[in-house]
Amino acid sequence: MRAPRSIASDEVFRAISHRTRRAILDALRAGPARAGDLATGFPASRPAISKHLKVLRDSGMVREERVGRERIYSLDPVPLHRVAGWIEGYRSFWQTSLARLKRHLEEK
Fold first, then answer.
1. DSSP-derived 3-state class of residue 19
2. Looking at the DSSP assignment, which residues form a beta bridge with residue 64?
3. Global pTM?
4. Which residue of 14, 48, 68, 87 sits 20 to 30 Å from the alpha carbon of 7, by its own alpha carbon?
5. CA–CA separation, 103 vs 84, rounded Å?
6. CA–CA separation, 20 and 1 (whole Å)
7. How far is the C-alpha of 38 from the C-alpha of 40, rounded, in Å?
8. In the CATH scheme, what architecture does the domain 4-77 have?
9. Which residues are within 8 A (CB) of 96 and not within 5 positions of it... i.e. 6 or more apart?
10. 102 in the Ramachandran plot: left (φ > 0), alpha (ψ -120 to 50) or beta?
């Protein structure tokens, strides 16, 4: 059984694996947007954008607020911060490994 943190990370990685979802996240960095406005920025159909927004909501990276008949979406970067912390550990690993490789190659 996976820990809740692992499941959350899996959902985030799944969400950012698609370029349209990454583009939606990029669009939401500018601020909240209506679903219709988000959909007009992409060549995909509105139902396809709705499916992408659902994946992003399920991952916790996007919040939905209903205002009358409209849905307003906003970015919640917290899940990305958690994943970024995990990735940062690998950055340190690679920097150390590459520095070691460089020293090794320079010694020869």
1. helix
2. 73
3. 0.75
4. 48
5. 28
6. 31
7. 6
8. Orthogonal Bundle (1.10)
9. none
10. alpha
Helices 46-59 & 19-28, crossing angle to 10 degrees?
80
Q: Average pLDDT, stretch 10-37? A: 93
Could you tell me if 60 and 16 are in contact, meaning their C-beta atoms sit under 8 angstroms apart?
no
Phi-psi region of 31 (alpha: psi -120 to 50; beta: other; left: phi over 0): left
β-strand partners of 33:
73
Residue 3, amino acid: A
Q: Return all residues near 32 (Cβ < 8 A) that are at least 6 apart.
A: 65, 72, 73, 74
- Cα distances from 89 to residues 29, 82, 83, in angstroms, run 25, 12, 10
Structure tokens at 89: 């550990």
Nearest to 73 by CA among 33, 40, 42: 33
- The phi and psi torsions of 65 (rounded to 5 degrees) equal -125, 130
